[in-house]
Amino acid sequence: MKSVLLFSYPTGDISNLAAKWHIWEMLREKLPELTHSECEDGFEVLNLLDTEHDTLPSLYEGRTIVVIGETGREALGLPKILLHPFMFRGVEWRQLPHPIGGYQWYSDRSCRDLAVLLLHELYLRGNPNGKTV
Q1: How many domains does the chain have?
Q2: Does residue 13 register a pLDDT over 80?
Q3: Which of 12, 25, 57, 70 has its CA 20 to 30 A from that of 49?
Q4: Cβ pair 44, 4 in contact under 8 A
């Protein structure tokens, strides 16, 4: 089942496009032949601003939601726990800094490598017949 990438951005905000591009670039570190389209097909992408916060756990029970950025984490009232999974109301939550605002975090090679591993694992989980390393 596809994991959910949860962003928080105003409609038409270019930072969302840039963030998706950075996620694709990170996945290409493990899957060099992965196309942008395949990357986008590998995840369900939601905008927190277009979503009822209280309905997320019931709609996505049993799935993984990756909250991208601090804004979404704060809006959902989640504790700040980067990378590590934690269960809350039937959902496995993961958190990553926003690729645009968290550039310093991603500049640390060990942090970036952990993000790449997480995204790769979740991509493969949602695409069992997709490309592999």
Answers
A1: 1
A2: no
A3: 25
A4: yes
Backbone angles phi, psi at 71, to 5 degrees: -60, -45
What SS3 state is found at 93?
A: strand
pTM above 0.85, yes or no: yes
> What residue type is 53 in one-letter code?
H
Torsion of CA 42, 48, 51, 52, to 10 degrees: 130
Confidence band, pLDDT 50/70/90 cuts, at residue 102:
low
Which range marks the domain in which residue 121 is found? 3-126
Environment class of 111 (CB within 10 Å of its CB; exposed 0-12, middle 13-18, buried 19+): middle
- Cα 57 to the center of its chain, rounded Å: 16
Q: What is the DSSP string of 95-109?
A: EE--TTTTHHHHHSH
